Amino acid sequence: MNAEISPPGTANNHRVEVAAPARHFTIRLSATRRGARLARRLACEQLDAWGWPYDSEAHRTAALLVGELAANAAPHGRERGRDFRLRLTLDPEESALRIEVTDPRPDRRPPVPGLLRPTSSEGESGRGLLLVEALADHWGATFGDPYTKTVWCEVTL
């Protein structure tokens, strides 16, 4: 007896909408400037592989956001002998990217979104989260356990 097999995405000759699964990328990197640069580079390669080419505005925005969050994790989230984790989650249906950087310093909390203050024009640092707030749709920090904090942002690509 032969059974009719429908191709994926069809049922009884009717097209069925199949939701594309979210895509994830996670890596642990050293909490150094070199680790932060590598985070940005690897995120760029992953975004390109997911269909967001290097020369697109969405790619450049996401790369800048990854770079800023990773650069903050190096000095502000550094704990001797501990790494930081970069996690990218792409929701293809919404074309939304969530960027998470987790470090081992929950005691060093970032400012609350919406309450950031501009730094002096002569300071060499302090502008990273201002860029994140300006470019991301949403951002914040979560403290899931007593040993880590995660600073995250979401952007529509």
Q: What features would you describe in this structure?
A:
The structure is a single chain. This protein has 157 residues and is of the alpha+beta class. 29% of the residues lie in helices and 29% in strands. It is built from three helices and seven strands, in the order βββααββαββ. The strands form two sheets. Strands 3-4-5-7-6 form a five-stranded antiparallel β-sheet. A two-stranded antiparallel sheet has the order 1-2. Strand 4 and strand 5 form a beta hairpin. The longest helix has 20 residues. The radius of gyration is 19 Å and the shape is globular. The termini are far apart. The N terminus is likely disordered.
Strand count: 7
Radius of gyration, in angstroms, nearest whole number: 19 Å
The major pleated sheet works out as:
5 strands, antiparallel
Helix/strand-derived category reads alpha+beta
- Count of helix runs: 3
Low-confidence stretches: 1-8
Average residue pLDDT: 83
| Strand-residue proportion | 25-35%
Q: Calculate the terminal CA-CA distance, rounded to whole Å.
A: 49 Å
Fraction of residues in helix: 25-40%
Reading the helices and strands in chain order gives: EEEHHEEHEE
Strand order of the largest sheet: 3-4-5-7-6
Shape: globular
List keywords for this structure.
3 helices; disordered N terminus; two-stranded antiparallel sheet; alpha+beta; 157 residues; five-stranded antiparallel beta sheet; single chain
